């Protein structure tokens, strides 16, 4: 005797739909974070006075610079989006190691604090007085704390990027991951070296690093939505 056909459990179906919607929301948040984190591309228009090869990108958000609120808002939006995505994915994306989402959370919180509370007082690369006060430690605590929050953001991003790159499957995603890894590694190493020798193009290397970080956010958005494998989840 044939058993009557039964529809799937509506509660289970609603749970699956909610899971997909949450992952889609996290992916959209990460894509928005990637775009906002690239607000430095507006620098030639909004603040052409900073020297691209020598100036820190953080100087765009220094409180004495023109349109600094635009760049601060970009960092705060990036940080909030990354934090929300990290919280969602830590609960839902079990196929990716947890350090990926812990690192994303550290990056998000540190970047939001960076833009909202610890922006620089002034731009030392173009202001001799600012450079002297910075060297003497006479600028505000927010200016001095900026180095800490920026370093935490990069450290969290690198932790997350390594964890995400380690689980990518399929030729297309591995190629994308390799491209992101190369740009991010070159930018990070170049920035660290140029920190000791600013005349070696500190600003240029930092721009390469931030390009890699935006690439990591976009790659993570794809993983958030479709998982690390080549096939779409069912």
Automatic annotation (TrEMBL):
Q: Does the keyword Cell membrane apply?
A: no
Q: Which residues cross the membrane?
A: 21-46, 66-89, 101-119, 148-168, 175-196, 208-227
The keyword Transcription is assigned to this record? no
From what superkingdom does this record's organism come? Answer: Bacteria
Q: Name one Pfam family in it.
A: DUF998
Record InterPro entries:
DUF998
Record's keyword terms, sorted: Membrane, Transmembrane, Transmembrane helix
Task: Please identify the protein, giving its name as recorded.
Answer: DUF998 domain-containing protein
Naturally occurring in which organism (per UniProt)? Micromonospora humida
